[in-house]
Amino acid sequence: MSTASKLTLAGTSLFAVATIFFVHYGQQNEKAAMHAGVLRDIEQQRVKRERQAEFEMQRQLEGEYRKVQNVHDGDEVKREGAAKGP
Fold this sequence. Notes:
Low-confidence stretches: none
Radius of gyration: 35 Å
Structural class: mainly alpha
Shape: rod-shaped
Mean pLDDT: 89
Largest sheet: none
Order of helices and strands: HH
Number of helices: 2
């Protein structure tokens, strides 16, 4: 085998190994990024469920308070004050 052919074989082999390494490295990074996205989505869903539960609890409390207390709109209070005069 001549020196030129040995260098060509070594160069192409090195190029092939480097290509395989970089593709594998890229796939590992992509897999990690996808997994991080899944974790982020799970966290967002958890926060959304917590906020929805808090909202429902506040709605129930508001309903209970409205049963116990007399609640008027601001317009009614203004009209009553205007009707009474200064």
